[in-house]
Specification:
- By secondary structure, this protein is an alpha+beta fold.
- Helix content is 30%, strand content 26%.
- It contains 7 helices and 11 strands.
- The strands form 2 sheets. Strands 3, 4, 5, 6, 7, 8, 9, 10 and 11 form a 9-stranded antiparallel β-sheet that branches.
- The chain is globular and about 50 Å long.
């Protein structure tokens, strides 16, 4: 594991603010600014991946994520040949279960302090439009966030971003829903992003010691980056996105089992 040591000044200030406001919360002990990346991630973020290894948002492309095995590149970033940012990311969660992942995706949005646990330097808040469903009795964990819009404020690299995520069933994005079970998909958090009109895909598969999370951020319905300056802008954005994803999910993997064990029965 390699420590993350670079934090833009604004994110350092957000970390101090997050640390202060979480002090009296019952889960404050899970607030930890020591962030890490796995050694094998480093080559993947040193240079862009081949553009021909990216997939698009068509149903045929998405369904390749339901095939056995892995894609040519599972962690990387690029600008596609037709001028769109693309990010792929694989994170492993030893000692964790898909049920924990599904629980986390509604539990973290109950109040901003919970969201800051996930990425203490970069996460400010994730506010669901329907807050009542988060604590409504008798609702399955997955139904507390699916079809619920979340207004998110966070940093992606040095850039403060305000993003609306509309969570959706995978089939609503184009996946063949009849194949999910056979493909071993045990949990998911997919949706549409207001940022550059993109889609976000998080699919969970069991492993021998926990689960793995395969993520994609596809922006082929948004702006096309054509000029050299625009493509330079797009590749920087894609780089910051893969680094953000790897950092937040690697960090989550270090405490998800413990926080679920303490708070996963309905707090």
């Amino acid at each position: 594991m390699l420590p993350v040591t670079y934090y833009p000044v604004d994110t350092q200030e957000l970390f101090r603010s997050n640390a202060e406001r979480i002090t009296n919360k019952p889960y404050a002990k899970y607030f930890n600014g020591d962030l890490w990346l796995h050694d094998d991630v480093m080559p993947a973020i040193k240079e862009p991946m081949p553009a021909d290894a990216a997939i698009g948002s068509s149903a045929d492309d998405l369904d390749t994520l339901l095939d056995p095995g892995y894609h040519k590149v599972e962690t990387g970033f690029c600008v596609t040949d037709d001028g769109h940012p693309y990010v792929t990311s694989l994170t492993r969660f030893p000692g964790c279960t898909p049920e924990m992942f599904t629980w986390w995706f509604w539990w973290h949005s109950v109040e901003p302090e919970r969201y800051s646990l996930w990425y203490p330097y970069n996460h400010q808040q994730a506010v669901p439009r329907d807050k009542d469903v988060l604590t409504r009795p008798g609702v399955a964990d997955v139904d507390r966030y699916i079809h619920n819009k979340h207004d998110v404020v966070e940093y992606i690299g040095p850039m403060r971003s305000e993003i609306t995520i509309t969570f959706a069933e995978p089939g609503e994005l184009g996946f063949d829903a009849s194949r999910l079970d056979e493909a071993g998909i045990r949990a998911h958090a997919c949706g549409r992003l207001s940022m550059n009109n993109g889609i976000m895909i998080h699919l969970v598969r069991d492993t021998a010691d926990g689960f793995e999370l395969r993520s994609r951020y596809i922006f082929d319905q948004g702006k096309t980056y054509s000029t050299d300056d625009e493509r330079s802008e797009a590749i920087k954005f894609a780089y910051e996105m893969v680094l953000h994803d790897q950092t937040e999910f690697t960090h989550l993997s270090t405490f998800l089992a413990d926080i679920y064990g303490e708070f996963g029965q309905g707090s």
